[in-house]
Amino acid sequence: MPFDINGIRIPTIQKENVAVRCRGCGSVIDGAPFRVNVMDITAVEIPPAWSGRTSINPGPFQFHADPACTRRWMRERGDLFCRKSAIRELMRPIAVPGETPRWGLCDGLHTDDHELVPA
Fold it and tell me: What are the residue boundaries of the structural domains of the chain, listed by start?
């Protein structure tokens, strides 16, 4: 599809393909995505090597503005959700004790104990 810029027809410019997809439902995100970052588990004294990986990928992960998409992504990863928090741009990981490693996610804005439930 050619474009006209300042009255000049330019047939080589094409409309961009929208490829930003929601990590929760997988459909295309129209407009600006809602981004969620998961903080690192511990702060390191030196920056990690460019070839290294953190134990939890901090993102950003992109979703629709609907919190159901973010909760679906959490369920698929096996994460729990602190019901005293909300889905926010920055989520903090909480190690859940047990034989197998498991994580809960919380916004960290409350001062009392976490209440982790399935997302």
Answer: 3-118
